[in-house]
Amino acid sequence: MRVFFVFAITAGLLIYSTGLTAPLHLDDPNVLRIAETVGWGTRALGYASFWLNRQILLFIGSVLPWREAFYYRLGNVFIHALAATALFWLVREITQRWLTAAVAGALFLVHPIQTQAVTYISQRFESQAAMFMFLSAAAFARFRRTNTRLWIPAVVVFAIGAALTKETAVVLPLWLLFIEFVFFEGTQLRKLVVYMAGLGLLLVVPALRAFQGSGQITLGWIAWDQYLLTQGPVLTKYFELATWPRRQFLFYDFEPVRTITSSVALQWLLVAGIVGAGVYLLKRQRLIGFGVISFFILLLPVMLLPLPDLIVEHRLYGAFAGVAIAAAGCVQVINRRWSLAMTILAAILVVALGVKTARRNSEWQDQLTFLEMHHAAFPRDPQILTRLASYYFMSGYVNKSLELNLEARRYEDRFNTYYSQQGHVLTAINLSSAYLAKGDFQNAEIEARRAIAAKPKEGYAWRALGYVQMQERKFPEAVESFKKYSELLPNSEAWQALELAATRAGDAATAKLAAEKLNAESEKASAVAAATGIPERYKSFAIFGLTLGVLGALAWAVYTVWAAIAGLANHKGTRTQGSSQVM
Length: 583
Fold this sequence. Notes:
By secondary structure, the protein is an all-alpha fold. About 75% of the residues lie in helices and about 0% in strands. It has three domains: about 1-365, no CATH class; about 365-530, Serine Threonine Protein Phosphatase 5, Tetratricopeptide repeat, CATH 1.25.40; about 535-580.
């Protein structure tokens, strides 16, 4: 397993290096900001990993030249390599074949469908939860194979780790029971059902807490029967993406299915056919059948719960383990007759997928090009238009931003129920900023007030109105707007804007209060930087220590691979000697 981990780290860094320095995308800044605060809710372990990542960034980043996003993506690649290694361990435990396990782990590692959960920083929740689920399943398989009870705590701890990372881990007990049924003849199935029910109740608590209060909004945006009917086309698209994805996107303009058509019926027949094939293969080639059915089991939460995004690639991250296992099972079957040819073919496939993954990662480097690709594919998607308009505005292309925002306004009715309010707010705020930049204060104020009307507790809407009022020299009104902004989203910029507006309005008391808040924020930021950064006089020692650490890791990797090769050579030599003595 150590040899595969060395391979996973090396290959992961190589194929994901093309996107490591890409900027933050979409929800990344918001997720990282939440990770810096207290109160992480049901995803405590996921946010904790981001918090720890930031502490490392603040410590090491002061002596290394890379931008903030690089360190977070480096952490994502490390988690991805661990997840692939955990899958290798699981397959090794249930098959006792290292080559089959290596094929499964390598396919999981290099496939392009995994890029969204790795390169899109905020989707670490998906990869980290899958890593813990694989570790729990592998520990369970080790327990059942060796009957060593010491592995039981590992099963439970890893399962809890998955649940505290992402709510979809509730499906883990069902998957563990399936592993028992397929590979251990179900000898303890009745007893394990009771234990797994208890584990399931433990894991469902974070999921229930996550949807408490927001469940009606989050899960009630679409009728459940419509959502379930849509899963036929969604799964068909997932089948395509899980084989050889030709075009990958962060957003897919996917409409809910409202009536059964011939196309929808055929797609559901395809889904039923694949499920049937998986069930049939459980008796003929159980590893292949296990992989096929595992794909659907691991997707069950997102198939049954009507989540706002109908289709996103990162949901396939954990479920793709089923595809990788099924593919490894196919290699195992064919390998019995054409061992060398199949091994070479599998190696070529891994390399080809790795090249495709590297190319996919490079697309994340430029935000404008990345979303223009989406715009070309889905020209009427208001979410894409709004995001792209924001990026053009931040890049200084005000006219282009205004054009795209007006285009998004024409298609606002295409936002689904869940995103409708936020979509209207973002479009209005973007238009207000664009009009303000062009000096059209009247339209800028109209759009800012439209954003406030759509969502009165949106801090950025009040921010937009405050800046318009500052330009219109309505300083007392700007003070009130910035007060609302600072109440809803307290931050340095809010206090600074409030101080400026209050000073010009002649409100000395408010200006003084804002200045005190701003100084407190600055002192807090300085204290954090001083506590976590490396003092200038110690930076040379830190660089030396980091260099030693990297060299030590390389030496360990080389020794691990060398020891494995030497052990394999000795094993072959022993077998050859034994054959000669028999002759």
